[in-house]
């Protein structure tokens, strides 16, 4: 088949169609459609490049509404996320979008906030599946309020919905290791910096802290905050130490709280790690760029998102596939904030 030469009129024509792209690339419409939808069908590199070049040159934009009606697939998924702006959650958004884009899908981000029964899977556009990160109570409330909901759903994170496909994160191993590391480094008064709402039995970091402290015969100590916000933690650390003195080790619920604690300790002129050792949890990039880099429990976000995308693809292709379950393990990374040997 001959490849059509592009003319000036071709390039300025409005509303070029798939037929125009196929003619310009010298392929059939079906081939052009498969290439432009990132189909898994095999084409030679030359064919794929001709189609993509023709589409770019002609300014072709697919009619997504027509494609969705014809295929019953939108090539869009939804990511439900508990907090869209915090650095750790931003990592999740980045890696999940990257996985979906490589699979030919776009992603709609929905923040799980407000009344969970009012949460909808749509945002003015149909989606082919949903991945929910954390916010298990929101997912549960949504499923209860929508008993006929049948879209493929994968839940991931420490707080996940177990009635769907899911990937959970093992934080307990890293949390126990963090507390044991502090105690083994000669710290005698190791406190757990934690939001008041997360100081409860069944929360993995809480339970792991208690287990490691009991194992060492050490008394637990809690520094409770009203939120995880850095500014709130900074203030809380200052007032707590003024009243009760300073622990010589602090295990922090997450990295945002560890960063707030770090600044609060600096405000008081306390040296890290000489006077107080600090360990966070999540593994966000910010922790590496302090004068004293923070030890932290690194969550395998990229691995988790890749597995979630794999599960969702399988569920979209095979709705009756057996329930899929996976576990990824977070690992303690020791840095200067807790590494003083005594």
Q: Beta-strand level of the residues, as a percent range?
A: 15-25%
CATH homology-level superfamily of the largest domain: Response regulator
**Could you name the CATH class of the largest domain?**
Alpha Beta
**Radius of gyration, CA atoms, in whole angstroms:** 26 Å
Walk me through what this model shows.
There is one protein chain. This protein has helices spanning 8-12, 18-25, 29-36, 45-58, 64-71, 87-102, 136-145, 172-184, 204-216, 230-244, 255-267, 301-317, and strands spanning 76-81, 106-111, 129-133, 153-156, 165-170, 190-195, 222-225, 249-252, 277-282, 295-298, 325-329, 331-333. By secondary structure, it is of the alpha/beta class. α2 packs across α4 and α8 runs parallel beside α9. The chain starts with 7 loop residues before the first helix and ends in a 9-residue tail after the last strand. α6 (87-102) links the parallel β1 and β2. The strands form two sheets. It has a six-stranded parallel β-sheet with strand order 2-1-3-4-5-11. The chain has a six-stranded mixed β-sheet with strand order 7-6-8-9-10-12, sandwiched between helices. The chain folds into three domains: 8-58, no CATH class; 71-170 and 301-330, Response regulator (Rossmann fold), CATH 3.40.50; 172-298, Response regulator (Rossmann fold, 3-Layer(aba) Sandwich).
């Amino acid at each position: 088949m001959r490849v059509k030469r592009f003319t000036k009129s071709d390039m300025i024509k409005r509303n070029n169609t798939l037929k125009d792209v196929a003619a310009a690339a010298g392929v059939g419409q079906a081939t052009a459609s498969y290439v432009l939808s990132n189909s898994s069908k095999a084409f030679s590199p030359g064919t794929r490049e001709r189609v993509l070049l023709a589409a770019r040159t002609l300014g072709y934009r697919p009619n997504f509404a027509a494609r969705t009606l014809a295929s019953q697939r939108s090539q869009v998924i939804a990511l439900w996320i508990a907090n869209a702006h915090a650095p750790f959650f931003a990592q999740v958004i980045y890696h999940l979008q990257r996985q979906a884009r490589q699979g030919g899908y776009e992603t709609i981000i929905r923040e799980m906030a407000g009344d969970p029964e009012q949460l909808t899977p749509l945002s003015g556009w149909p989606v082919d599946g949903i991945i929910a990160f954390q916010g298990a109570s929101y997912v549960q409330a949504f499923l209860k309020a929508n008993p006929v909901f049948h879209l493929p759903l994968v839940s991931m994170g420490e707080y996940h919905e177990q009635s769907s496909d899911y990937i959970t994160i093992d934080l307990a191993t890293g949390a126990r290791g963090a507390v044991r590391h502090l105690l083994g480094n000669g710290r005698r008064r190791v406190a757990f910096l934690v939001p008041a709402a997360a100081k409860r039995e069944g929360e993995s970091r809480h339970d792991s802290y208690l287990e490691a402290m009991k194992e060492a015969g050490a008394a637990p100590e809690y520094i409770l905050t009203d939120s995880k916000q850095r500014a709130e933690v900074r203030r809380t650390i200052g007032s707590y130490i003024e009243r009760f003195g300073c622990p010589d080790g602090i295990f922090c619920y997450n990295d945002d709280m560890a960063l707030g604690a770090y600044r609060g300790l600096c405000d008081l002129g306390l040296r890290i790690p000489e006077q107080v050792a600090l360990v966070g949890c999540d593994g966000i990039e910010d922790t590496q760029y302090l004068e004293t880099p923070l030890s932290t429990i690194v969550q395998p976000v990229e691995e988790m998102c890749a597995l979630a995308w794999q599960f969702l693809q399988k569920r979209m292709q095979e709705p009756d596939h057996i329930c899929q379950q996976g576990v990824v393990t977070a690992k303690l990374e020791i840095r200067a904030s807790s590494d003083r040997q005594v």
